[in-house]
Structure prediction request, 244 residues.
Amino acid sequence: MATTVKSGTIQKSNRLPAMLFSASILDSKKDIFGIYTFFGKENKADWMKVFEDLINRGLKKVLIIVSDDFPGIIDAVKIAYPYADLKFAFVHLQRNVKRHMTKEDSSKFNKELDKIRLSSSDVDEAVSGFNQLCNEYLPKYPRFLKGLLEKAEFYFAHINYPEEIRKHIYTTEAVESINSIIEKIGMKSGGYFQSTEILEINIYFQRENFKRGKWKNGVPLIRHYTYEILQLFNLRYELDTQNS
Prediction:
């Protein structure tokens, strides 16, 4: 599985480095697969460059990509990894709800979101509950909620996976600890990194620290369900082989 996250600014410009984070299916160990610089807002062309690089380096089959709702990423994933699930971060969804709704409405809405996430037996049930919830508030927040309704399926793709591992793939929170560390380093350097190279060096050292520490033994729950995950992977890409 993989997830994407934005990091801090470089030289106070509009260049935003994007970091791709991945946990291997077979050994459940986390790693950083690449660092890519976007100019301005992300778009489909930028994401295609990222995915083409990863494919050229051997990452040709992906089961699930967990990401923020970046511009262009839906179309790019469909082209680069047509058999992969794309999952938008749930925590970021709830933050956006707080940003666009009143305090009272956002509190009620997010509580219902958690109920849907935790109680739904499959994606269709979750999307149905989500649509019903959004429609209740649609008259008050039409523009915001119409945008969510169009992408409902992407917020619940993790429900396709064993219940016990969903907490590891329902949001990008796992990578935000790294992002937070990098941002703190940038702040100590005056609020930004002097160059892309300096940023990459800092990320490299943090990656090595994590690999010797928190990431050394992998994620026990994911490792425990390796067989089930591998079955999902083989089933999905067996279809790919048959159609090729």
Notes: The chain has two domains: 2-89+172-243, 90-153.
